[in-house]
From TrEMBL:
The protein, known as: Sodium-dependent transporter
Subcellular location: Membrane
Primary location: membrane
Pfam families xrefs: SNF (PF00209)
Topology term for the membrane: Multi-pass membrane protein
NCBIfam families for the chain: Na_transp
Entry keyword set: Membrane, Transmembrane, Transmembrane helix, Transport
Transmembrane in keyword set: yes
Database matches in InterPro entries: Na/ntran_symport, SNS_sf
């Protein structure tokens, strides 16, 4: 059987833009500003920076080393690390599958809101418009209800674009798309920020965002929030960076690339915070509504608070179009990376061609998304799935990965040598200490605190039965299916893997 060399990025810049595009997603725009405001304002930047140095960058480098060293998707890479660790890779693939199905839906909302922004179609009550007119949300969580055409058709378009880019491959598809997406996103967002800074009352919002509350640093929850923000904003923990790094050339600088990607992501988050709070300051000055009542995160900020502000500001339609186009670009670059994890794993596991994997597996992911979420009950399923797959999927999987690699297999030294062999910045003992001690401890605290909250009261007061099915069931199901997939024998033998590795070395 002829063995093709693994695809590679055309340039280091292409890889960096793809990695940055994966990291810069919807959460950067609507999660970071609210987290900073609620956790000490300007003082939050200190624990945030420490979290970046002690958890974000070390984890990013670790995933880069695993991907480049083994030249495989997460399941195959963990299998090479240790046969019994293969389930960790499949767990990450299943997590990506779940996230992709609902992440695309939020992206479809942003697509529709680009059109709504031209005429400010949400009117005087953006809240009622979003949940009533647009999403047509039903009254009972757990019931799928009928299809909502206004969500279904843009969702279909999102999947067509995403799968089309993936079908073109790493270099001609993902790399090419991100070379367009990321510069465009930065330009658009800079325009948004400049416009926001010129609004009357912008200084009110900026004062609230940057004024430090140093007493907050004595609160352990603030530090946990900082680590959580870093963790969930860098696209680490669910196989994306392992997959992307598997397409790197053998002599690529891993540590330097991680530094660039991590700092770029954090810089964009800070830029987003400035833009968001300058805009909220305008709203406070023009309406008299206290800033505390305006600060929110998630879909409430993007699809309720911002439309309200857009309707009350000069040239609001222009501002609105730029904002929602920025959301679409940020979300699309992230969605592409999430689905690529699934595609890559299936290609490595079955020997399918890229186009076959995109059509069959990508098509199945898209079909699941299209059948489950653009319904009157879809928002409830999206909310529960997102809550539990993030807290008890990504975070828990990452904790176990660190325990397995750092404490069970004791492979951190090997991975450090992999990074140091080609990187300008050498990793010291701090790197292994962070991954073996600091990050697992913080993840453990985060998970314990989350579990305590779940046991105290049902999330959003949903029924226990609904949470067991759409929340706990989804998170547990990803792990169970991952274990079952890891038990299936591989048909391709190790000789083929070694031959492919030899071709990869020659091509680099």
């Amino acid at each position: 059987m002829a063995i093709k060399p693994r695809e590679q990025w055309g340039t280091r810049l292409g890889f960096l833009l793809a990695a940055i595009g994966s990291a810069i997603g919807l959460g950067n725009i609507w999660r970071f500003p609210a987290e900073a405001y609620r956790n000490g304002g300007g003082a939050f930047l200190l624990p945030y920076l420490i979290a970046l140095i002690t958890a974000g960058l070390p984890l990013l480098i670790l995933e880069y080393t695993i991907g480049r060293r083994f030249r495989k998707s997460p399941p195959a890479a963990f299998r090479k690390l240790a046969r019994k660790a293969e389930f960790l890779g499949w767990w990450q693939v299943l997590i990506c599958f779940v996230i992709a199905t609902y992440y695309a839906v939020i992206l479809a909302w942003a697509v529709r809101y680009v059109g709504f922004a031209f005429t400010e179609q949400w009117g005087d009550e953006p809240d009622a418009f979003l949940f009533g007119n647009f999403l047509q949300v039903g009254d009972t969580p757990g019931e799928f209800g009928g299809f909502v055409g206004g969500v279904f058709w843009p969702l279909l378009a999102v999947w067509v674009v995403t799968l089309g880019i993936l079908a073109l491959g790493v270099r001609r598809g993902i790399e090419w798309a991100n070379k367009i997406f990321i510069p465009t996103l930065v330009v658009f967002f800079l325009i948004l920020v400049v416009r926001a800074l010129t609004l009357e009352g912008a200084e009110v919002g900026l004062d609230a965002f940057f004024t430090p509350d140093w007493s907050a640093l004595r609160d352990g929850n603030v530090w946990v929030a900082a680590y959580g923000q870093i963790f969930f904003s860098l696209s680490i923990g669910f196989g994306i960076m392992i997959t992307y790094a598997s397409y790197l050339r053998r002599r690529s600088d891993l540590t330097g690339s991680a530094m660039v990607a991590g700092l770029s992501n954090s810089s964009f988050e800070l830029l987003a915070g400035i833009g968001v709070f300058a805009t909220l300051g305008f709203m406070t000055a023009s309406t008299g509504v206290p800033l505390d009542e305006l600060v929110t995160s998630g879909i409430g900020l993007a699809f309720v608070a911002f439309p309200t502000i857009i309707s009350s500001m000069p040239a609001g339609a222009f501002f609105g179009v730029l904002f929602f186009v920025s959301l679409v670009i940020a979300g699309l670059s992230s969605l592409i990376s999430i689905v690529q994890v699934i595609i890559s794993a299936v290609m490595d596991r079955t020997g399918m061609s890229r186009v076959q994997a995109v059509v069959i597996v990508g098509g199945l992911t898209a079909l699941t998304s299209l059948l489950l979420f653009p319904r009157t009950g879809g928002l409830y399923f999206l909310d529960a799935s997102d809550r539990f797959i993030n807290r008890y999927g990504i975070a828990l999987a990452s904790l176990i990965v660190l325990i397995v690699i750092g404490w069970v297999l004791r492979k951190l030294g090997e991975q450090q040598a992999e990074a140091d062999a080609t990187s300008a910045i050498m990793l010291g003992r701090w790197w292994k200490f962070c991954l073996a001690v600091i990050t697992p401890v913080v993840l453990g605290i985060m998970l314990f605190d989350s579990l305590r909250q779940e046991l105290e009261s049902n999330y959003e007061e949903y029924s226990t039965g609904f949470l067991l099915a759409a929340g706990w069931g989804v998170a547990a199901g990803a792990l169970v299916v991952a274990i079952l997939l890891s038990l299936i024998p591989w048909r391709r033998n190790m000789d083929e893997d070694l031959a492919a590795l030899h071709l990869d070395k020659r091509s680099s």
